[in-house]
Amino acid sequence: MPHIVVIGAGVVGLSTAIRLQEAGHKVTIVARDLPGDPKNIKYTSPWAGAHHVSVATGADMRLHEFDKETFGVMSEMIKADPSLPLIFAPQIEYREGPRPEGDTDQVSLLGRYHPDFRRLEPSELPEEIQHGAAFTCILIDTPHYLPYLLKRFKSKGGVTHRATVPDIASALSVSPELALADAIVHSTGLGARETVGDKDVFPTRGQLVIVRAPWIKGGKTRLGQGVYTYTIPRKSGDVVIGGSADANDWDPTPRPELTEKIKRLGLAMHPELLPPEKRAAGRIEDLDVVELAAGLRPTRKGGIRLESDEIAVGGRKIPVIHNYGHGGYGYQSSWGTARAAVQLVEGALAGAPVHSKL
Ligand SMILES: Cc1cc2nc3c(=O)[nH]c(=O)nc-3n(C[C@H](O)[C@H](O)[C@H](O)COP(=O)(O)OP(=O)(O)OC[C@H]3O[C@@H](n4cnc5c(N)ncnc54)[C@H](O)[C@@H]3O)c2cc1C
């Protein structure tokens, strides 16, 4: 049975590790951070909202396919086990500006696989909104989903080692049994800037306000000139209000003026964030805030890196499969990219050329 080392225990590394196990491999995870750790700015996955609302357009149909595949996998997971921290929920997308022509803009592509997809009628559009859509999406309760993935991995005999590695080869010296591993999957997110010196990876900072509002059952997004507002209810009853997307901003601390803006725009779009008796006044001070947060999306110029490589260690060539750079879409593309990474691992073990890409 081939032994594969996965570096990284974010949603990408964990999903890939599970798919590798299911393909019959022995898998060990090496990671600096693991699910359940106190949140820290270097570990993106625990910060995410998250919803499954693809941002793919015709310019990146590969991402569309990964997202669509992941939506299918998560849908089956919910149907098989409704107790999972994943739920189907109604979603509304509002867009400022004219509706794009053609059928491969972001909203049109959502219509290719989301159940109950329909365009909003003019009478349903709030002021300043030119078009929009309603459909069923999937909401991911990330603080519970990551431990679920880890438990699933361990239940199939998966082993984890906590270690920070300066480069990929060092993962093989974390523990004696890793020295003879057959391949490595590299899923360090933003960490790829150090482990492989990939400066095409950069943070896109997102700030959030998390409120208690268990009566909210669906999310909304509004996109426009300088406006990026969204609400993501979690199965726990918390609702994530976003957002922001600031490239190359490493600030780990929520900024008060942005917090205030997020609350104001969130409440304007989704007045039901307040309990009924406080709705008419519409005061942001009445939001029941449970957490202020900021996370760094691991964005990559050129998109997700899914590529085979190799390293030489002790005279031995070892295949390395990169799977990182998932930006703001690591949850919603996780199962699709995991499947692709397994395909690259198996190709590499079978002698496929180095630098094969998917
Ligand atoms: C505010 C916000 C909202 C978001 N909303 C959504 C959403 O709605 N939908 C969605 O799909 N996505 C969303 N995302 C994006 C999503 O969170 C990321 O794409 C995803 O978490 C990236 O996962 P990852 O596994 O690649 O990276 P990470 O979660 O950062 O994991 C990296 C792993 O590699 C390890 N590592 C790194 N360097 C080293 C090293 N040198 N040695 C050992 N281990 C190392 C880390 O410890 C960690 O275990 C959001 C992100 C943010 C910040």
UniProtKB/TrEMBL annotation:
Database matches in InterPro entries: D-amino_acid_oxidase_CS, DAO, FAD-dep_OxRdtase
TM segment ranges: none
One Gene Ontology biological process: D-amino acid catabolic process
Signal in keyword set: no
CC annotations in GO: cytoplasm
Cofactor: FAD
Binding site for D-dopa: R297, G328
Domain FAD dependent oxidoreductase: 4-344
Source organism superkingdom: Eukaryota
Binding-site positions, FAD: T44, S45, T188
Keyword annotations of the record: FAD, Flavoprotein, Oxidoreductase
Entry's Gene Ontology molecular function annotations: D-amino-acid oxidase activity; FAD binding
Presence of keyword Flavoprotein: yes
SUPFAM superfamilies in the cross-refs: FAD-linked reductases, C-terminal domain, Nucleotide-binding domain
Family (UniProt): Belongs to the DAMOX/DASOX family.
Entries under PANTHER family matching the protein: D-AMINO ACID OXIDASE, D-ASPARTATE OXIDASE
Protein name, UniProt field: FAD dependent oxidoreductase domain-containing protein
Species the sequence originates in: Leucosporidium creatinivorum
